[in-house]
Amino acid sequence: MAGDIEAASPALCRLYLGIELRKLRKGRGLVGQQVATLTAWSPAKITRIESGSKPVEPMDVRVLCQLYEADAETASRLEGYAFVTKTKKDWWQSPQYRPVMRPGFDAFIGLEAIAAELHEYQSEFVPGLLQTEGYVRTLHATAYQRLPEDEVQRRIAMRLTRQEILTRKDRPLKLAAIVNEAVLRRVVGSPEVMERQLTHMLEVAQLPNVTLQVVPFSAGSHPCMGGPFIVLEFPDPVIKPIVYLENLVTTAVTSKEDDVEWSESAFRNLAAMSLGHDESLSMIEKVRKEY
Questions:
Q1: In terms of Cα–Cα distance, which of 96, 102, 189 is closest to 141?
Q2: Per-residue pLDDT in tens (0 to 9) along the chain, 291 residues
Q3: 77/62 Cα distance (integer angstroms)
Q4: DSSP for 9-61?
Q5: What whole-number distance in Å separates Cα of residue 182 and Cα of residue 217?
Q6: Of 128, 139, 157, which is closest to residue 228 (Cα–Cα)?
Q7: Does residue 269 contact residue 183 with C-beta atoms inside 8 Å?
Q8: Would you say 123 and 180 are in contact if contact means Cβ atoms under 8 Å apart?
C-alpha cells in the first residue's frame, strides 16, 4: 500500500490513515479527549479521523504526526493518504449520489468497496447486492413514501452501481448470503416483480464468488433471530473484520472484537442449519414457479 498510494481508492486511504493514526496515538499513551485538548479540536473530529469515514486535511495529519512524534517516513506516508482523501472521490461521493446518501451509509459503502468477503443475513428482504430495479423501487415506495421521484431514481441507480463489485475484473467481492424463507414468499410489489427478482437471484448465484443459502421455516429457531447483519472481511489483516447493522432510521458500524466474534459465529451456525447452496437454489426455483 505504501508504495502505491496515488493509485489507491480514497476509501482505502481513509481506512489506513485512521488505523495508523489510532495506533500512533495509543503508542503515545493518549486517549482521544487528551488529543482534542492538545489540538484544540473537538473529540468528534478525532473520532471522524480515526474511523476513516470522512476526507482528512493533510495539515491535520501533520499536526497529529508531530504530536505523536511519528518518524519522517511515516508522516510523509500518512500525509499522502490524506492528500488522496481530499483530491480524489469514490463514485458514491459524486454530486449525483451525495444528496441521497443516508447518514453513516457512505462509510459502509467505502468498506464494502474494499472488502474481500461479505457475509450477510437478511430476514425480511433480498440482500441489496442481489436486488433488481423493480424490487428496489417497491421497497422505496413502501418505506420512503415522501421521497420525490428523482431521489428514488438516484437511490435505485446507487444500489445497482454497488452490485458491480460482484463482477468487477479486479478481485470481485466474495459474497455469502443467507435469507429467511419469508424473503422468497413475501410478495414485494407484485408476482411479476417477485418472479423477476427470484430469477435474478438464481442468475447471480451462478457466479463462482457467490454463495446463496435459505434458512427454511422448518429449521425452527436459529441464532440470528435477533435481526439482520453484515460482516465484512478485508484482504489486509491489518484491517480487522467489521459488522454493519441497519434499520429504517439509522446505521451502525462496529469493529469491537466481541461483536465481530458473535456475528461470525452466529453466521457460521446459521449456515450449518440452512439449506446448502444447491438445495437453496432448488427452493428458490420452486417458489419462483409459484408466482
A1: 189
A2: 444 665 578 888 999 999 999 999 999 999 999 999 999 999 999 999 998 878 899 999 999 999 999 999 999 999 999 999 999 888 888 888 887 777 678 778 888 999 999 999 999 999 999 999 999 999 888 877 777 888 889 989 999 999 999 999 989 999 999 999 999 999 999 999 999 999 999 999 999 999 999 999 999 999 999 999 999 999 988 889 999 988 767 778 888 899 999 999 999 999 999 999 999 999 999 999 999
A3: 11
A4: -HHHHHHHHHHHHHHHHHHTT--HHHHHHHHT--HHHHHHHHHT-S---HHHH
A5: 8
A6: 128
A7: no
A8: yes
Domain topology for 2-88: 434 Repressor (Amino-terminal Domain) (1.10.260)
**Fold type of domain 99-290:** Endonuclease; Chain A (3.30.870)
Residues in contact with 270: Cβ distance below 8 Å, sequence separation at least 6, in sequence order: 121, 178, 215, 222, 223, 224
The DSSP call for residue 207 is S
Domain coordinates in residue numbering, the chain: 2-88, 99-290
Q: Find, among 142, 165, 141, the residue nearest to 151 by Cα.
A: 141
Contact present, 163 and 218 (Cβ < 8 Å)? no
Which residue type sits at 64? Answer: L
Helix or strand run (H / E) with residue 79 = helix 72-87
The CA distance from 236 to 4, in Å, is: 15
- Reported in sequence order, the residue ranges of the chain that DSSP labels E, i.e. its strands, are 117-122, 174-180, 210-215, 229-233, 242-246, 251-254
b or e along 43-62 (b: 16 or more beta carbons within 10 Å of the residue's beta carbon)? eebbebbbebbebbebebbb
Beta-carbon-side half-sphere exposure of residue 11 (alpha carbons within 13 Å): 17
